[in-house]
Hints:
By secondary structure, this protein is of the alpha/beta class. The chain contains 13 helices and eight strands. The protein has two domains: 8-248, TIM Barrel; 255-337, Chorismate Mutase Domain, subunit A, CATH 1.20.59.
Amino acid sequence: MEIPKNQIIIAGPCSAESENQVMDTARQIHAIDPSIIYRAGIWKPRTKPGSFEGIGSKGLNWLKEVKETYGLRTSTEVATPAHVEACLAHDIDILWIGARTTVNPFSVQAIADALRGSNKTIMVKNPIHADIHLWIGAFERLEKAGITNTIGIHRGFHSGYKGILRNEPHWDLVDQFRELMPEKKVICDPSHISGDSLLVPSISEMAVKRKLDGLMIETHRDPSVALSDKKQQLRPNQLLALLDYLYGSSQDLLELREEINQTDEHLISLLARRMSIAQKIALSKRRDQLDILQPERWSAVRDQNEKLASKYELDPQFVKGLYEMIHEASIDQQKGLL
């Protein structure tokens, strides 16, 4: 399995919990593909106080060790100028602005000001609620601060509806964002959309089919003991299986199935066109007072199809049976018009 050059894959635990956990997870991710960008949350904005809110700045030393030991690029979330300064001091490669921060223009502006003069890649998650203009506004604030190397992260939208997914994908809003900002790459965060590791593969496949620019997948060496979002994190071996399915030899299968889908649509459109022509023939027969079934014509059609079957190396009996069904449907349609 080789990740395509045009795909950005980010993986790692929701939260950095201990040096051993960070390093062991990094070791397993590096073994999958060293081009994967390693993520780990250092500061965690939680809904209620008392929950695990991140290990804090000491976790940046662990990310620095990941980079030095395995050569993986590193990434984490920032929510304040102090976070930005700490990450820059530890040479974290990629920073992202979370959904809870994107909703606040004051916070985004403060982060943009703290990044001024930096050449770091900055990713911006869509805001929690379905407001793509607020999302676009975050990019504009960064660009005005001279930060142009930016990427969008689609992590779904909270609508209040309690469905199977943690957040609604609203793919149409992502399409709209990409139309308004065609120069921006957008990757998908299937972990936060699904909220369940069992659903991460299906959301990831949808993102690949919609030609998004990559995936951010929460991956923990043992999700059962994770201190945050344990339900939605994959194990490294599950990540490998998913990436192999999406980008390995099975990618050929996905492309071939898509080609089949397009061919089937073309076949059905041709059948619809044929039935439309048959309707016109029925009206012509009615005008000229001709019988619906014209044996000589049907015999000529069968002979022609037998020759075409041989030309295109198809089973003549298969083609004969197919056209008998088409012919019967055409006759039934003509009877309804006469």
